[in-house]
Amino acid sequence: MNQGAQGSAEARAAGTPGIARVRGEARVPVQPGAADVARGEHTHSEPLLPRPRAVVQRSSVRGQILDALRRALMAGELTPGQVYSAPALGERFGVSATPVREAMQQLALEGAVEVVPNRGFRVVERGARELVELAEVRALIEVPVLLRLARTVPPERWAGLRPLAEATVRAASSGCRATYAESDRAFHAAVLSLSGNEQLVHIAGELHRRAQWPLVGPQSGRGRVDLITDAAEHTALLDALIARDLDTVRTLTAEHFTATS
């Protein structure tokens, strides 16, 4: 390369952001300055940096808001058919609209709310028929697995689930539907996890959560007596599983899913 061409190349390099000339033709990327970062510019050879702690904190806030919204739905504090905006809910929980909007998007995926463009989110109005259909699907998935596990899982492993069954009894006695819903899901998930099938546990858990959203009309909520009856079936089921009483296991599981509908 002649001197003129070399000078021209160096001039072009000097005028190109992110390029520096080092001893003749060698060039290395220059780390972007604050102004470049503000514009979102970077070099392809730049190593990826860990996400800032603020993102983790926002994710934590989103999770807390999601839990709070789920409990509000279960407690009937958010009315079916009513539209709620993210800013209004954010004011209620003392946060910005962003984590509320993200949490409501998750609830939309779970079938609890639906998006209303330019307004917010409407709490889904669910009838008894939907609950019956969900119970039927849950039974088709969970009952065959449970009967198979009843023949293969040793009694001591079933006995290890006793604390979770007892937790559902305590939650039912409190009369809080949201608290009971959490303990109920935890017990069923622990039972199904003995199958070793993570996809089964996930799919059954999502169906279970959908089945717990409150209904519209006279059957809008299960009372304390209903919750206590449901929880008692958990302990009775464990007793039958420990005793390897397959007939009782079959009867109890059929009754359990029928009662939840």
Q: In summary, what is this structure?
A:
By secondary structure, the chain is mainly α. It has twelve helices and five strands. About 20% of the residues have low confidence.
What does this structure look like?
This protein has helices at residues 3-14, 34-38, 53-74, 86-93, 97-109, 128-152, 155-159, 162-174, 177-193, 198-212, 224-242, 246-260; strands spanning 19-21, 27-29, 83-84, 113-116, 120-123. The relative contact order is 0.10. It is elongated and about 55 Å long. The strands form two sheets. The chain has a three-stranded antiparallel beta sheet with strand order 3-5-4. By secondary structure, the chain is mainly alpha-helical.
Helicity level = 55-70%
Radius of gyration computed on alpha carbons: 28 Å
| Spatial strand sequence of the major β-sheet | 3-5-4
Q: Count of helices?
A: 12
| Nearest-integer average pLDDT | 80
Number of strands: 5
- CA distance, first residue to last residue: 83 Å
Major sheet characteristics:
3 strands, antiparallel
**Order of helices and strands, N to C?**
HEEHHEHHEEHHHHHHH
Range of strand content: 5-15%
Regions with pLDDT < 50 over 5+ consecutive residues? 5-46, 48-57
> What spatial form do the alpha-carbon principal axes imply?
elongated
Helices and strands: which structural class? Answer: mainly alpha
Give keywords.
two-stranded antiparallel ribbon; single chain; mainly alpha; about 260 residues; 12 helices; 5 strands
Q: What is the fold's blueprint, element by element?
A:
Elements (H helix, E strand, L loop, with lengths): L2 H12 L4 E3 L5 E3 L4 H5 L14 H22 L8 E2 L1 H8 L3 H13 L3 E4 L3 E4 L4 H25 L2 H5 L2 H13 L2 H17 L4 H15 L11 H19 L3 H15 L1
Helix pairs in contact: 3-5, 3-9, 4-5, 6-10, 6-12, 8-9, 8-11, 9-10, 9-11, 11-12
